[in-house]
Amino acid sequence: MALSLSARDGEQSPSTSQNPAPNNREFTVAGEHVYNRRSAGRWIMSHVLRYPLLPALVVLFSVSEMVLFSYAPVLIGQAFDLMLSPQRSVAALTSIALLVLGVRIVQGLIGLCSAGTVELLAQRLERNTREELMISLLGKSQTFHNRQQIGDIMARATNDVRQLNGMVNPGFSMIFNSMLGIVIPIIGVAFLDPHLLLAPALFLVFFYWSLRRYTNQLNPVAGAARAQFGVMNAGLTESIGGIEVVKAYAQERSARRRFANDARIFRDLAVKEGQIQARYLPILFFGLMYALGFAHALFL
Question: Quick one: CA torsion of 90, 92, 96, 99, rounded to 10 degrees?
């Protein structure tokens, strides 16, 4: 999401302003790239589409890899059919085996290219986001900075920006590959025998229900954990920065108690987040539907 710092002195924050003009700032940076800040989704897309070739290559590599991944089992099935037919021969089996080997090698090479491309895209997103945040902070007035907590700004500039990297890789990469892993094999199954689509159709229904339930449970807890991390980091930074005042008024115990309370809340949220992640049901449904699909194929 777009990183924002509430400007209580009348200035617009980086996430709510609509591409503020550089001449309205206290400081400007020459050659600044302007991003679309009308919404979080448009802001992310404007960052990603700054390098249009990279997302296009990610989609191309991912689709090609999944097509080859789905094609290899078809070749193995053809090998079994060949060995059960009267026309079986070692030469024909060898050619199919070499073809499977070639498909797997090409799939692996494409997978490496896909992983490298999506990682490059994630690193550039993180770099450009941090650059945009720093430019935005440079344009703020001294009054704005005096009203902000240093620890909160540092948490946003380091940990929060780093989360955008993970959002692309492995976040977006895993989601996109998972979707392709569902759609392309189902298309392949439909070409083989439409009657085999029973188990995949049931899996899609349970998968959608369980994934929606999982995200509805996880999103509030994950958001609260990130917010609490900023509060804990801000409190600790203020205590360390004003350690002379803390010691002068003998508030060491109070500061320690306040930090321990913030850390305890963050720990509880992290534990709750882990408990929700441990109850990820789609993997269970995948195993059940895999067995059901195999039984259904034997029945047919």
Answer: 110
The domain total for the chain is 2
Give 35-51 pLDDT, tens digit per residue: 998 998 899 999 999 99
What tokens were used for 90?
């070692």
Q: Same structural domain for residues 5 and 123?
A: yes
Segments in the chain forming alpha helices (H):
40-48, 53-84, 90-138, 142-146, 150-155, 161-166, 173-192, 198-241, 243-248, 252-278, 282-299
Residues 233 and 125 in one domain: no
- Torsion angle, alpha carbons of 127, 50, 180, 285, to 10: 40
Last residue of a domain, one of 192, 207, 238: 192
Based on the domain organization, do 248 and 167 belong to the same domain?
A: no
Task: Spell out, as residue ranges, where the chain has pLDDT lower than 50.
Answer: 1-18, 20-22
Q: 180 and 32, same structural domain?
A: yes
Q: What is the extent of the structural domain holding 151?
A: 1-192
Please report the pLDDT score of residue 24 as a whole number. Answer: 61
Distance CA 300, CA 296 (A): 6
Quick one: which of 230, 218, 227, 225 has its CA closest to 270?
A: 225
Nearest to 41 by CA among 153, 236, 172: 172
Q: Are residues 111 and 242 in the same domain?
A: no
Spatial CB neighbours of 160, under 8 Å, sequence gap ≥ 6? 3, 226, 230
CATH number where 38 lies: 1.20.1560.10
pLDDT tens, 217-247? 999 999 999 889 888 888 888 888 788 777 7
Alpha-carbon distance 227 to 85, whole Å? 65
